[in-house]
């Protein structure tokens, strides 16, 4: 069995949905098709939640009505039979009545509201499959996808539930399901965070031990640099799981930060493909040889750098342990870390407990904080026998102030911390100097 995931743009309008159907039907394997919400929908749902929190009900009504009109347009363009068009419109009507019903509820329905995008896209897709006479079965991700008390996917439960769902329907060749949405440990609707449909696809692939996980998007694979900021980037034919995982975690938007891990654990190749140019080779992520030198570059914004200078001048026994305990207490992950004899610098991207963390760190040493920083991650082969790579990286950046360098943590990554205002320039300079 294989998994095919299509992102928001791929299901973004009637014309694109037709392209997705063609790709799905051209695939002769048994498959699970994972769909994102129609592009823009989740952003609108996020906005609705914000407005509801601010009690701006009139603005919410305007937004909901505008979104509903978009779906009417999509349905009118997608369906040709009156019968299926009416079915789709009636489904849309119910869903938008439901959205309106949350306006006057006193309790928070934030996660339920966020889930509606994927619920709508998959239902419309299934009705369209029916119109075309294609056999497929829509299964609800809420029946098998779940996260535990730490908001981590509950792999064992996902596997048991999904495998049983599939074996109850073993005559079906094509299953359709939602990306992004799940239930939490209380059984409530929740999600895998923004961009989470990639993660759903990978978790599903791992649960069914898929032959391959295909991520279909709006670009021809993983590029060597961020195409949103740098010209003349190119698609990479193949890369290792480690390289892809680093790039995803450190900002390559094409993949959700955690999405490579389930595939890697189960050694399932991940193929990145372009819905709008299906003949392009794309990128295959699998166990393969590491690159010669730098394979690709990504950057992650919203980083906070914290420096703690020990009051005792020398790196005292237990100093690091005490620092880490503060971050553990506030469940805040550290991304980068560098040390000197008297000080430690580290970075976090989650500022939920920043005030509390800083208060406790001040007991241990003199603390300074830099906000609006970015991590630039270079993935590739940095093993000791690859001479000169770090020198050529730093050589490109003679004019960029570098706040931290992390090198040697693994053989396949080098990370630099810079001010976010220098990010685009840094990516461009590295592109010019390294590729
Ligand atoms: P989807 O909606 O299909 O999940 P995303 O917008 O989440 O698509 O991801 C695809 C986008 O990721 C591309 O359009 C591209 O702008 C962006 N991107 C950022 N870094 C990279 C990279 N290194 N390679 C390819 N795409 C990248
Ligand atoms: N619809 C969700 C989002 O926009 C999930 C996804 O597209 O992967 O974040
Ligand atoms: Mg995405």
Strand content: 15-25%
The percentage helix is 25-40%
Identify the CATH architecture of the largest domain. 3-Layer(aba) Sandwich
What compounds are bound to the protein?
Answer: adenosine-5'-diphosphate, aspartic acid, magnesium ion
Q: What topology, given as strand order, has the largest sheet?
A: 3-4-2-1-7-9-10-8
Q: Give the helix tally.
A: 13
The secondary-structure element order is: EHEHHHHEHEEEHEEHHEEEHEEHEHEEH
The largest sheet, given as strand count, sense and whether it forms a barrel, is: 8 strands, mixed
Q: What are the segments in which pLDDT stays under 50 over at least 5 consecutive residues? A: none
Cα separation of the termini: 37 Å
Mean pLDDT metric: 96
Reported by name, the CATH topology of the largest domain is Carbamate kinase
Shape, principal axes of CA atoms: globular
How many strand segments?
16
**Count of the domains:** 2
> Helices and strands: which structural class?
alpha/beta
SSE layout and pairings?
Blueprint: E1 2-6, H1 14-26, E2 31-35, H2 41-53, H3 57-78, H4 82-101, H5 110-132, E3 137-138, H6 155-168, E4 174-178, E5 181-183, E6 189-191, H7 197-207, E7 212-217, E8 238-239, H8 241-249, H9 260-265, E9 270-274, E10 283-285, E11 294-310, H10 319-329, E12 337-339, E13 343-348, H11 354-364, E14 365-380, H12 389-396, E15 404-407, E16 413-419, H13 423-434
Parallel strand pairs: 1-2, 1-7, 2-4, 3-4, 7-9, 8-10
Antiparallel strand pairs: 5-6, 9-10, 11-13, 11-14, 12-13, 14-16, 15-16
Helix pairs in contact: 1-3, 2-3, 2-5, 3-4, 4-5, 6-7, 10-11, 12-13
Bound molecules: adenosine-5'-diphosphate, aspartic acid (ASP) and magnesium ion (MG).
């Amino acid at each position: 069995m294989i998994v095919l995931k299509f992102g928001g743009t791929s299901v973004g309008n009637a014309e694109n949905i037709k392209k997705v159907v063609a790709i799905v039907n051209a695939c002769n394997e048994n498959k699970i098709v994972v769909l994102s919400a129609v592009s823009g929908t989740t952003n609108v749902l996020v906005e609705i939640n914000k407005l509801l929190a601010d009690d701006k009900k009139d603005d919410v009504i305007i937004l909901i009505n505008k979104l509903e009109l978009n779906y009417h347009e999509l349905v009118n363009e997608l369906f040709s039979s009156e019968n299926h068009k009416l079915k789709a419109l009636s489904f849309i009507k119910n869903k938008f009545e439901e959205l309106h019903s949350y306006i006057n509820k006193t309790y928070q329905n934030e996660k339920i509201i966020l889930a509606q995008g994927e619920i709508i896209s998959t239902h419309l897709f299934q009705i369209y499959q029916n119109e075309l006479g294609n056999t497929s079965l829509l299964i609800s991700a809420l029946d098998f996808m779940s996260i535990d008390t730490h908001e981590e996917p509950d792999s064992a439960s996902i596997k048991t539930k999904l495998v049983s769902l599939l074996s109850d329907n073993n005559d079906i060749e094509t299953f359709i399901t939602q990306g992004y949405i799940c239930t939490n440990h209380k059984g409530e609707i929740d999600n895998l965070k923004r961009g989470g449909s990639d993660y759903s696809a990978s978790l599903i692939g791992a649960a069914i031990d898929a032959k391959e996980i295909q991520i279909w998007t709006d670009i021809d694979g993983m590029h060597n640099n961020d195409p949103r900021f740098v010209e003349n980037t190119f698609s990479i034919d193949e890369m290792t799981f480690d390289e892809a995982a680093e790039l995803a975690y450190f900002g390559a938007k094409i993949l959700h930060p955690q999405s490579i891990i389930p595939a890697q654990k189960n050694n399932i190749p991940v193929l990145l493909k372009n819905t709008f140019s299906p003949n392009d080779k794309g990128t295959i992520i699998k166990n393969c040889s590491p690159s010669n030198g730098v394979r690709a570059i990504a950057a992650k914004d919203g980083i906070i750098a914290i420096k703690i200078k020990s009051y005792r001048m020398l790196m005292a026994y237990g100093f690091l342990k005490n620092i880490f305990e503060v971050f553990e207490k506030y469940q805040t992950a550290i991304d980068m870390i560098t040390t000197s004899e008297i000080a430690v610098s580290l970075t976090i991207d989650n500022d939920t407990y920043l005030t509390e963390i800083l208060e406790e760190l001040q007991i241990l040493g003199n603390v300074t904080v830099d906000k609006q920083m970015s991590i630039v991650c270079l993935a590739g082969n940095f093993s000791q026998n690859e001479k000169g790579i770090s020198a050529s990286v730093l050589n490109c950046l003679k004019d960029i102030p570098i706040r931290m360098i992390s090198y040697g943590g693994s053989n396949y990554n080098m990370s630099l911390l810079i001010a976010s205002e220098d990010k685009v320039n840094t990516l461009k300079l590295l592109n010019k100097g390294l590729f």
